[in-house]
Each structure stands twice: as structure tokens, then as C-alpha cells.
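Obj: model holo form, ligand = GLP.
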Amino acid sequence: MVAALIRGKPDAVLGLATGSSPMPLYEALGAENLDLGRVRGFSLDEYLGLGSTHKHSYAQVIRREVVDRLGLAPALIHTPDGEAADGALEAAGFEDRIRAAGGIDLQVLGIGSNGHLAFNEPPSAFTSRTRVVELADSTRADNARFFDSLEDVPTHAITQGLATIFEARHLLLIAHGHRKAEAVARAIEGPVTEQFPASMIQLHPNVTVILDEAAASKL
Ligand code: GLP
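Output (holo C-alpha cells):
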């Protein structure tokens, strides 16, 4: 689907997720023999306090796993600046850049085990836009595996809001493993509620969910 989008629109605007879930997608995209030099991209989120050169920053993850791997043009890929002096200003500027690009064609999404999308922790308003948020303890614990210790995981982040994500023309949610099964079932079959942000996908007109059997086991 992603390759087909780019074949039809070489300057497509992708919403890029980090985390482990989308990595096989990025690998597979690399095997498609596409010219991705005009693809534009916006990351979902960034840790607050980690600069774009910090090895655990999402800017670096996107740089390594997406931009360098796939030959994207670095100048066309945007990640919120986790070291911005004014987080609210950075968030508003990020929204402006998405708007100026004409919106996101396809937003790649993982799902947090607590039902978060990007870093929209429960509860998050469906009307929320890009902003600074505090991370849930469970999210910091989940993501500690990428850091040396739990203490090293930042406490705050800048994240696209749920309304920002919802405006993407196509949502592509990817989840693997038993650890995600409960969250996937609640997102797809549970009540639509801001208490469980991923349930918002039920309201979107164009959503694709890709699961392995383990992640689908509670549907
Ligand atoms: C992280 C990211 C999310 C991601 C999620 C799942 O905290 N902020 O955007 O989707 O958690 O991560 P993983 O795919 O590694 O399970």
C-alpha cells in the first residue's frame, strides 16, 4: 500500500512512526526499488529534552531506520525538535508545516500497550493537536528497553495530537505480538472513548490494520 501510494504520488506525505512495530514495513519498502527522493515525511512524536543528535531521539531513529535506509531527502523529513526552548511554539510550527505540505497522505501508526497513539496517553482528547505531554509510567517502562535504564527515559514528549493524526487521509496501524492483543481488541472492538485513545480509529473513514496472529488473538 505504501509503495503503491508512492508510485502514484512520488512526493507523497508520509506520517512516520518509530517503535519496533513499523520496522518491517520500512525494511520491506527498501526492497521495492522505488525512488523515494521526493517523499515528504512527518514524525509522530519526539522525546522532550533529547536533541536531534541524541542516539535515542526519534529524530535519530527516523534518520537511521527510514531516511538513510530508504534514501529519503533529509530536508523533506520533519521531526518535532525535542530541545525547542518553547515547546508550544514548536508544536504549533509543526502543525503549520504539516498543513503547508497539504496534510498527511498515509499515517503509519503503532499502538501502545496502554492504548496510546503516538504519545497521546489515556485520556487524550480526540480534538487534541500537537503539544507537549507527560508520559505514562507504563509507557516509560515499555520504552525503557531502548535506553540504558528506566531513569534515562524522558518524562515528557512532543506528540502529534489525536486530531492531527485523524486528519491523515489513510491510517495504517501495525501491531505484533501477544503484548498488544488486549490493546488491539479494545481499539477495534471496544467503546470509542478518549479514555482509550486508539479507539479513535473506529471513527476514521480509511483505516488499515495489519496484525500478526498473536496481536489479533483477542479479537
Ligand atoms: C512508542 C511510540 C509510539 C509507538 C508505540 C509502540 O511509545 N511513541 O508511536 O507506536 O510506543 O511501540 P512499539 O512499536 O515499539 O511497541
